[in-house]
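Action item from last week, closing it out:
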Amino acid sequence: MKAETSDQKNVLGEPLQPCCFNPTTGVFRDGYCHATKNDPGLHLVCARMTKDFLEYSLLQGNDLITPKPEFDFPGLQAGDRWCLCAMRWKQAFDAGLAPPVYLKSTHEQALEVTSLQDLKSCAIDIH
């Protein structure tokens, strides 16, 4: 099942832009941080991975480093873009370890979990 991209908006109220195609991210592995009722993890925040965040996530029990081919997951390293769970991003933000975000590729539904102000404070595509 694919999400319809044209009707999805980013946190700026504009059409949602792709997050990453290498590695291909998103719940549908189509490069977008779509919102869908089939994604209880709310993978809505397009972020650039950092070593600190990846280590933090691992300590929280979410290993984003180890490849898991059975889930079409390549494993991530610093510099990769990825659609993160909005709640994990907010948790990392509160701990001072949030990775930088791409607002144009972050789904507007992320604003139900975190504020636009917090996202903007970590934005690397809007100044």
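Closing note: The two ends are 35 Å apart (CA to CA).
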